[in-house]
Design brief:
four-stranded antiparallel sheet; 2 domains; about 35% helix
Amino acid sequence: MSDKLWRFSNLLSQGEYDFLVANPQPDINDDIDIARLRNSGFFDGVRETNGQDADDELAIQYTWGKNRRGVPSHLVRNAVFGVRRRNRIQLNKAKIITEGNVTISVTGESLDQSDMDVFLECINLCKEAGSFRASTSQRSFMGSLGMRCGGRAAEVLKSHIQRMHNYQIEIETANGDIFSTHMIMQYYINKKGLMVHLSKELIDILNRGTTWIDVRKRKALSTDLEKWMHCFVSSHKAEKPIYRSIEDLHNMTSSRLAIAKFKFELFKAMDCLEDKSVIKDWKPINGSKAICFTKK
């Protein structure tokens, strides 16, 4: 047993630390910048490892301010992060209806827009650290999400992280290239801190096509459908009107509402996006079987 692993096991046997470990390796060498662990001498800070291991270095080609988040466009034009259902469903290599020249299959418990909020912050955390592995305090992370720290909220955050860790996504491109990964590769959580390890391949897609999300406008939205449409609108250019059928949007969100009810909720969502200045205007067309909107 390695010296690090022996010290780690010894700390656990003494009841010193109470945290979750997902996908532990035979030789624990992941970095986590949480004061309790760092002071034990077991873990070094994430930033201290930058430049030593090229595989850990995160090179996102874009920068964004504190009120914007970047997310791969391939993840916001489909139901990878869908709209909230009364009960989440278990998916097994389910084909996701999407736009573009990719095919997406997913396995795991269905994700919704509350999971998307957490994933956006995970990407931002790693970008700020310059590493695919990054850590922070739970208080800081939950504060960025507008969540209260501790208690029930901490359990909710943990469930989001665990769900995305267990969620497997397979993407096949038009030229036949296929890769499979998890939304979150690895995580550590204790009572005060959080570390996440994102997929390098998934973030590489960010550099091929990025959607910018205005988090101030997103936080002002109420329903999952409003948030999904905000992401969808944001993934398009603003120069010209965008046309989509109600049926296509119903399928792309994986909504389980009847089509008539979905259309009613969609029209309300579009009115909200116009009020919040996400879109310039919108209108139903083709006998209300489709909508046309222009991004602001």
